[in-house]
Amino acid sequence: MQYSMGIDAGGTYTDSIIIRDSDGKVMDSNKALTTYPDLLAGIKNSIDGLDEKYLKEVKMVSVSTTLATNTILEKNGYPVGLILVGDYEIPEKMNAECYAVVKGGHDHHGTELEPLDMEAVEAFVEKVKDRVSAFAVSSYFSIRNPAHELAIKTRIQELTGLPVVCGHELSLDLGAYERGVTAYLNAQLIPIASQFILSIREEIKRRGMDARLLMLKCDGSVVGIDEALEKPIESIFSGPAASLVGASHLSGLETCAVIDVGGTSTDVSMLENGLPELCPEGAVVGGWQTKVKAIRMETSAMGGDSHVWVKNMKINIGPRRVIPLCVAAVKYPGFLEVLRKGRIPGTMHLEENVQPTKFFIRTGAEVSKLGSYEQELFDRIGDTPTSLNDIFWETQKNLSPGLLDSLIRKRLIQAIGFTPTDALHVLGEYRSWDAEASVAGAKLLERYMQTDYIELCKRIKRDVAKNMAVHLMSFVLKDIPSPEIEKIILSDRFAQFRMKIPVVLIGGPVVAYTEELKQILDADIIVPRHSEVGNAVGAVVGKGIKRIEILIKNTYSKERKRLVLLFSPRGRETFGSYPEALAHAEALGKQLVMEYMTGAGLDRGEVQIEMNRKDISLSEAGAIPIESKLVFVGIGMPKV
C-alpha cells in the first residue's frame, strides 16, 4: 500500500496528514505549533505525531506554506538589483532600493524600439553586485521578444555568477513594470525558498522516506520542486489555495464556497466545476501588484488568534495576531498566576497595547540598532510574560505603547492576549489548551464592560461569525460595495442572504461557528471530517494545472509584405501563412503543457488538455482573423 503526505506550514499551526493513494482516504493527521523563525522545527514536531507505519510507505510529499507571503509582508526578503529596460513610468514611492532604468525594449510586434544600453547595465551591476544576492530584469514588451532580458541575464551571470530572474519567465501578461515587480519579489525569495525546501528534503531523507517532493502554487495546482525553487513567488497565497483544494476533497464537492478560518485571518474563496477563479490582474501582496496568477479571494484580518481588546465598553477584534492566553499558559509555566495577579490598568488608559490581558515576551531573535527608548523598554521585557502596566509600576515611567509596535515589527517581542480561541475555551466549545487561563482573562475584561464574562464571549463569537458572513457575501457579490452588504448582514430586520451553493468551513474549531452562521445566512453549511487540517489535505491532493497562452497576429513588414507572427513562452516566430501558424500553435501549446506536466512528475496518461481559441476579425465570417489567442489548459494528477 502506498501513501502521500501533505504538510501546511501556516501562521499559527503546522499541519501534516497522510492520505491513502488508492482511494484518497485520510489515514492520520497531526497539528503542531508553527515555529519562528525556523519553520523546520514545527514541521518536525508535526510529522513526529504521525503513525510510523504509514510514514515508511509514503511515496509523495506535497507542501504549502505562508513563507513567501510573510517574507514579502514583513519586508524580510534578500536584497535584489532591479533593471528596467525601456521607457517606464516609475511610481513616486518605489520600494526597491537598488534599481536602474536603461535604454532598450521592443514594440508590440517584437521589433526593437531602441538598442540595449549594455554599458549602463554593466555599470549598475558593478556598482551593486556586492550589496545584492540576485538580480531581476524586465524589458518593455519582453513578452513579444525577450532578447534584451536574455542578453542582460547572460552578461550579469558572466560578471557576478548571481541568480537572475527575467520578467518573461514568470508572466506573459502585458505590464512591463508589474512583470519587473514580480521578478524582483521572486529574486528576493530564491534564497529563502531554497533553504526551506532543502531543509524539508533533508528531513525526508533523515527519516528514510523514499518520496518525491512537490509544492502547492497559489492557483491551487501542484508544481515540481525544481520549479518551486526557481519560482518561489508562485507559492504566495498557497495556504488559501490549499484550503480551497482541501475543502473540495474532504466534502466531495466540485462547486462550493469555502471559508478558511486561520489563526491570523479568515479567507473566502470558491470552486466552480473543480477549478478556482483566478485574479485576472494578478495577486497583490504587501502593496505590490504582481503578475502572479493566484486564486481570487476575500481576506479579513480576523482569525482565531486575533487580539480581542476593549475600550469605551466596545469589543475590538484584531487586526493583529497574538498568542492566546490558553496557549501561553501551557507554553510558559507560571503565566496563569501572573495573569490572575496582574495589575489592572485604569479605564482611561485602555488602548490596544494596554489591556489587563495583554502581555509581551521576547522571541529570541537577534537584536540590532535599537533606539535608546526602544532599548530601555526591551530590557524590561524578558523570557517571562510582562505587561506594560507592570513595567510602569516598576519604573514609574510612562513608556509609549508605540514603542511596543516597533519592537513587534522588528520581531524582537511577541504579544500574548485574549482571542476568539480563548472565548471558545470559556464557552466550552474548544478545549485543546488551558481553559482556566481563558476564563481568568474573560473575567478581567468583563470589568470594563456592562456584561458578564460568558455573555462577553458569546458576543465575540457572534462577531467572528458576522465577519465570516460579510466577507463571504462580499466575495460572491463582488460588484456590490462591501459597506452595503455589511449593513444588511448586521441589521436585525427581516432579511437574510441565501447561498445557492454549499459553504464549506475549514480550519481549527470552525464547527463552533456553524449555528451562528446559519442564523445570519440561509445556506447549506458543511464542516467535513478532518476540516481542522484541511490545508494539509489540499497540499497533497492538488491537481497539476498548467495554462499556456499563444498569440497569433497578422501584420505587415516595412516592405508591406504580409507577416504572421506567433508569440509563445518560447519567444517570437514568423510564418508565411495563418493556417501554418495556427497548426504550429496548436501543436506547440499541447507540447508545452505536456512537457511541464511530465517534468513536474505528473502521470502523462492522466493529463487532459483543453484548448480555447478567440479570434478578432475585421470582416465577415470565414475571413482570416487579424489576431487569434489560444489558451491551453492541462489538468493532471501527480504520479506516485
From TrEMBL:
Provide the GO biological process annotations. Answer: glutathione metabolic process
A cellular component term from Gene Ontology for this protein is: cytosol
- Which molecular function GO terms apply here? 5-oxoprolinase (ATP-hydrolyzing) activity
Top-level taxonomic group: Archaea
Q: Which residues form the Hydantoinase A/oxoprolinase domain?
A: 179-320
Q: Which residues form the Hydantoinase/oxoprolinase N-terminal domain?
A: 5-158
PANTHER family named in the record: 5-OXOPROLINASE, 5-OXOPROLINASE RELATED
Q: What is this protein called?
A: Hydantoinase/oxoprolinase family protein
Q: Give the organism's phylogenetic lineage.
A: Archaea, Methanobacteriati, Methanobacteriota, Stenosarchaea group, Methanomicrobia
